[in-house]
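Obj.: predict assembly geometry.
Materials: sequence records (below).
Method: joint structure prediction, all chains together.
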Amino acid sequence: MRRFLRPGHDPVRERLKRDLFQFNKTVEHGFPHQPSALGYSPFLRLMAIGTRSGAIKLYGAPGVEFMGLHEENNTVMQIHFIPDQCQLVTLLDDNSLHLWSLKQHGGASELREEHRFTLKGPPGSPPSATQVTAVLPHSSREVLYLGTESGNIFVVELPSFQVLEDRTITPEAVLHRIPEDNCNRRSCELVEALREHPKNPDQILIGYSRALIVLWDLQNNKAIHHFLGSQQLENLYWQRDGSKFISCHYDGSYAQWPVSSDNRQSEPLENTVPYGPFPCKAISKIYWQTTKNGLPYIIFQGGMPRASYGDRHSISVIRGSQQTAFDFTSRVIDFFIIFSSDPAAEFDDPSALVVLAEEELVVIDLKSAGWPAVHPPYLASLHCSAITCSHHVSNIPLKLWERIISAGSKQNIHYSSMPWPIDGGTNIAPDPPQRDLLLTGHEDGTVRFWDASGVCLHLLYKLSTVRVFLTDADPNDNMNTVGEDEWPPLRKVGTFDPYSDDPRLGIQKIYLCKYSGYLAVAGTAGQVLVMELNDEDAEHVVDHAEADLLQDQEGYRWKGHEKLKTRDGPVRFEAGFQPFVLVQCQPPAVVTSLALHSEWKLVAFGTSHGFGLFDHQQKRLVFVKCTLHPSDQLALEGPLSRVKSLKKSLRQSFRRIRRSRVSSRKRRGGGGNASEVQEANAKFDQDALQEMELAPVQRKIEARSAEDSFTGFVRTLYFADTFLRDSSRHCPSLWAGTNGGTVYAFCLRVPPAERRMDEPVRAEQAKEIQLMHRAPVVGILVLDGRSTPLPEPLEVAHDLSKSPDMQGSHQLLVVSEEQFKVFTLPKVSSKLKLKLTALEGCRVRKVTVANFGSCKTDDYSENDLAVLTNLGDIQIISLPFLKLQIRYPCIRKEDVSGIASCVFTKYGQGFYLISPSEFERFSLSTKWLVEPRCIVDMPEVTSNNHVHNKSGTENAARKS
Amino acid sequence: EFRRFSLERSKPGKFEEFYGLLQHVHKIPNVDVLVGYTDIHGDLLPINNDDNYHKAVSTANPLLRIFIQRKEDADYSAFGTDTMTRKKNVLSNVLRPDNHKKKPHIVISMPQDFRPVSSIIDVDILPETHRRVRLYKYGTDKPLGFYIRDGSSVRVTPHGLEKVPGIFISRLVPGGLAQSTGLLAVNDEVLEVNGIEVSGKSLDQVTDMMIANSRNLIITVRPANQRNNVVRNSRTSGSSSQSTESSLPSSTPNILGNLLQGEEESDEEDIIIEDSGEPQQIPKAAPTSESIESLSQIELLHESTQNGFLPSSEMNLSHSAGSISMEYEAPEPGRKSLEEDGTIITL
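Observations (raw structure tokens):
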């Protein structure tokens, strides 16, 4: 239509746009979703994690990160670094092998896939013949040994993945060379483990599933030794000097075997069931680590008594009389030990145990007494309790930063002081331009403060709001206390704890003032806490107020949850943010919007019923405003009735599915011969198809009306010092926007500082704007005389912003889900608008003002709106003319939680959840870009290292 | 009675001034009259607002014949296409030229006396298989009342016939606006919403677009039933057909002239309540010199050349709202406020 024709492009502006905007997904923070494999290179000191979606991530020193993705998106089963190389091999669950290498390109290393390969057996052989179960990269770096389900061991050349058929070790060849009567073909089925001799690269240890273990001479193609255990084999491990190896078994036992020079069948030196005598679960992996002062470390996974502790995910560390079973809250995927990698060293001297559990990475310091955990600098489990909201604060003043770190360090005293042991590679990224904080609110009532300045998202401090309330859980219940003679000696480790004591504690909104250190936090049961940063522990009473948002509404019945019970009397708070005011909304509906003005000492909060303003200086409720439409029964009753109907509909749809299944089975059963069955099937399919066509997905087209549900839901609150009543005097004001497209403006009278405690804060409604399109109001903003958004409170006082222009006329920007509108102030007349939904069919989900600097000139920057739509697109819209600058697809539109979790920063970056445990970081700016940039150099390799290589064993095959 | 007087063509002024002038020259200050003129085709067309007044003045060649009738004994049906050349067939209508003889004469009031609720527009520029329907939610309390669904339709493409996904009307709510107009039907394929093509958009996107435009919804459909398509008349010369409330037989000729054609997008007016006073509609801000920078000036120019007609009804509305409590600069024609329609949105 002619109205929507595009005017011509302005070349100057187009060029400027290229200097300002650029979209990049830069780094993934947090813990990989569904990890499935772990690998470690003692040579590179890099760790690799594979996931079920086919991603592979490498981590070294903080800031050293690489990521790769297998095209197939199949589960990564095993990861093996090639000894003394910047290469690794991955095995996927489709039995394909992939060779990856780290290559330097443009001054930084990159991870690239070089080759792929799938083992093929002779024609007609079953798939199990070539199903890879064990992988051994040989220390010669030239070949890979691949153990298979059939018992064959194939040899493939690297990097070409050429199968060297003449070197295949077949079960027949093995059996032929074992002078044993009770060994048969079945003994050599399924290769469980392949381990290279630590001193002699021409010998490998082959462990078959049925407990036959063979030491094989690669040069002469003969068995040097064979060992026959009594229990199904799980894994093998060489001792450092090659004189003994250790095997672990399905029944929870492990055995030590001597390797002597005479060619006889050996008996195990020692065969123990560590958690016997009752039946135990399998020990799936074991390490035997020697130390200088004699006592070795025996570290193994599993082996718990089947009946009483069979459900535990444990790794046991035994050293002499010391024994601890580290107890993980999620399944253990794999683990490795960091020990002396110097091939000349006589002992292993292990320093750390690194455990990859399904939901977190735990590192245990084995050198310090008590084996404390090490605080990881990355791979934080963001989801140790589900994330319910996030808030980003850019450019934190150094003072506040240091105080938060100091508060956090007091919480971390139980961590080891050991430096991070996985320290390969060099971070060459420039220092982060500023100190940024990402605050995440969690379901368990905690707020976590993350250092989001750089590539490593690092936990600085954790705040819990639980202490203010009386909950069923005893806060003194310490899960880590272990009785003296407890057996097995379990010790809980890790932070992943997804179970919330009380869902009402969940954090919904966070607002931090970086200048004053005031923090406001609001939650699921209508609780609003105002906190102050205190460097010391303190015990004090939290002032408590109630805000009745319904006021005079009659005939109301809240069917939702009750409000939280508060603790009477003084409460002890640890150093950090300590609450001093608690406001509880009545009814205790979830807080949907929150604003804090640290200069005026006011906090505003809104729920589905209305909003209120609280003076946290005088600790007095200033006013409440009910926004409910009298006919909005759903909001009146609370969330329960809605949940019920959802449940009901779910149940109905399940029933329908079941019914259709039953009927299809009946039909199939009735059919006598195949064709009849087929016919019935076809008919059924046709019926189903018809049914689908009869009831297609429909969407009702109806104009929104004032009577719609949840119109009173307060979506946004905003403080502004602007011209609300007349153009000569500006005054403090509070703005609120609702789901029904209403904007309320209140004129505030805040007494001057010297009489702040004596006179009350007064508020008076000055304006009410009803947007006729009635879409939810998601953002309110006042632009000053220069069309610049008003600064944050205290920003000007700290000389960090120019004072706003109070000469020219101010403008009000109202962002609804469908439109952007600019109105004049104080007389409200509409000036400009952008109808997003009418034009594009998308709706605004998130909107923030972001400052974009030019990458070409330092002195140019401008403010624009960063907008995320329900289609997952990000649009940048100019201020104050509301022109679409650029659009980038960012999140899949089906990824509702990703879109809901998105948070923009003030300088054109953003975060959104790509899984419950991972934030994707993106940048819209050419200037502010935080992405990993690092180099992995090949450490010096001595020529004789080849023979005495030690690292090969580390990468030896393990059971998948 | 004939009068002849001169008028400056470049500055015709407002209709009300002109109306006052007519009353003055005819010395009938308190008599309500209907004003009409003959256009270049010889049709008698009404003059009752700024738009058609300006149009009339611009067509003067150089004389403009104006007809004035006393309102109470006016012959409304005298207006319309071909009325001057074929005076006997006063009921002739572009849409259905063959049924005019059977229909009894129904007196309907003047266009400004009732609000349109729906219309078929742009008949002259659309293919005959398509129908562009405008629903004016603003004028009625009826719900829009229809549902849409996903479906597939067959298109002719360079690769031959191809099945492509489409959006269809799936249900009409009885008594709803959509049903009562008779212009939309179940299984009509939706092609455009307010000028935006829906192909490639999801059902949810189209739903959102329709709801966002619900106050003034223009849907282009390919009717499932192609038998009732408009038969195009070579003499339509840009005017469109229109149907009104369903209480009128759909074949009733109805003479809205070009009022509709140039009518501005009847945009929703937000409401403001100041200091708990009475709700008022929010006026549009006049562009001040500071806010019009070079960029927006280009667009103004652009816009005024695009929209041949200027919104008058809306201005009047703003006037009445403004006169209550607000003083503001009345937007002059040609300096239309920045925010009128979509043109400025896209860059």
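Conclusions so far: Chain B is about 20% helix and 20% strand.
To do: check interface contacts against the pulldown list.
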